[in-house]
Amino acid sequence: MELTNNSPVRVIKTIKENHPNTSIIIYTSLPQTIYGISLLKAGAAGYLSKGVSRKVMIEAIEKVVGNGYHITTNFANELNNNIDLSRPRNAYETLSPREVEVLKLLIEGKRNIEISSSLNINQKTVNTYKTRLMRKLEVKNPVDLYQQAKNYNLA
Description:
Rossmann fold, Arc Repressor Mutant, subunit A, two-stranded parallel sheet
């Protein structure tokens, strides 16, 4: 199922609220470094890349059915080193009020010139805010920035 109008985080939370004993494995081509943490925090029990072998897929399902989690070793190391899954991760809280304003205008589809005019700031300043937003929300391009905004219920 492809989620075109809903944030995967919202879908997972809704499923877990209505069916708390349901285990969810994410099977996607989206990079786990960008989406994995948010989806695990939302209640997913595993994260699989579309490139995994059948054997890995079966192992993941068996782990999850046994009330466990399945993530790759590299991703597990990242979690161990950087993330506390018990603490809600909300990079949105680290954004300044102006960064939030810029982000909201970006996800509305506004161009830099429109944002600069609307906020009465220079276009170069808009670019600076975009760069900061991408760094703080740990994304590498505007599409992923939009997806993260959806994950934080901003889009």
